[in-house]
Design goal:
single chain; 137 residues; alpha+beta; Lipocalin; 9-stranded antiparallel beta sheet; 1 helix; 9 strands
């Protein structure tokens, strides 16, 4: 009887661990890189140090001036309203354009395979691309 109770207790603990990993998005934790045309275009960092998933998004501005594409600026952003539902992560960042008022950009990230995902800004205009992210080691 004690053995059966111990097995049930260990099973319950294991299931709680799985549920917690899904709730906090543990499979998302890491550094995700995006390249466009061989140049870095963004870096998504995700961690769960506080027990909840949080992170930053660094957007790189790439210029083709001078013939060779190169990064001319990087903008760091703190993730807001982050949510994980199965293989999809959504969040918002506050954008600070030089020529206007602040606005909130909404992003969706979908895992496509182990260590791969696509990121897309859903309210950045009709020509906003979906870009592949690769999780770093």
């Amino acid at each position: 009887m004690k053995r059966k109770l111990l097995v049930m207790l260990l099973s319950a603990i294991a299931l709680c661990g799985v549920a917690r990993a899904q709730a906090t998005g543990e499979d998302w934790v890491g550094i995700w890189h995006a390249d466009v045309g061989g140049q870095p275009s963004s870096m998504l960092t995700l961690a769960s140090d506080t027990g909840e998933l949080g992170g930053t998004l660094v957007l790189d501005m790439v210029s083709g001036e001078g013939g060779q594409p190169h990064v001319i600026a990087s903008e760091p952003h703190v993730l807001m309203n982050l949510r994980v539902v199965q293989n999809e992560l959504t969040f918002q960042v506050k954008m600070r354009p030089r020529d206007g008022a602040n606005w909130i950009a909404s992003f969706t990230v979908r895992q496509s395979a182990a260590g791969k995902a696509t990121i897309h800004c859903v309210n950045c205009g009709a020509d906003a691309p979906s870009v592949e992210l690769v999780k770093g080691p």
